[in-house]
Amino acid sequence: MNTTTPAITERESLLCAAVLTWGSRVALVLMVASYAAYLLGVGTPRVSPAAAQANWHRSHSAFAAATAMPQGWAFLGELHHSDMLAMSGLCLVPVAALVAVAALVPGCLRRREWLFGAVCAALVGLVLVTALVVG
């Protein structure tokens, strides 16, 4: 007979799945809608489609320099531009995954799954610190 408890319950698995599902859906809708607006010329893009196409063959750093793209978290100040808004949808996918992992911590603590809860919390903390330091 197996007397060990699972690290996460079925309810927590469903919670993670729901967070990932809705986060992915919101990100996809945001990416499609804002990219369509960008291509259709709705709003003011930071980089025109013609300039993006002309520089597409370049490396990331050369493209960023040629188009004066904001680096790191600076894109958050540019969300009023349709092309930058499309980029924000890409950022929502890993954010949804991070929220899903963070949602596991309270259940782990309630069940006294200290190690698994600590690993989840540490993972979230590490990603956030890395994003702040690198970005």
Structure description:
Helix 1 (10-40) packs antiparallel against helix 4 (82-102) and helix 5 packs antiparallel against helix 6. The chain is an all-alpha fold and 135 residues long. It has helices at 10-40, 49-55, 60-67, 82-102, 104-110, 114-134. It has one domain. The longest helix has 31 residues, at 10-40.
Question: Could you outline the blueprint of secondary structure elements for this entry?
Answer:
Elements: H1 10-40, H2 49-55, H3 60-67, H4 82-102, H5 104-110, H6 114-134
Helix pairs in contact: 1-4, 4-6, 5-6
Q: In this structure, how is the largest beta sheet organized?
A: none
Shape: elongated
Tally the helices.
Answer: 6
Q: What gyration radius follows from the Cα positions, in whole Å?
A: 20 Å
Name the helix and strand elements from N-terminus to C-terminus, one letter apiece: HHHHHH
Which blocks of ≥5 consecutive residues have pLDDT under 50?
none
Number of domains: 1
Summarize the structure.
With 135 residues, this protein is an all-alpha fold. The chain contains six helices and no strands.
Question: What structural keywords apply?
Answer:
single chain, elongated, mainly alpha, 135 residues
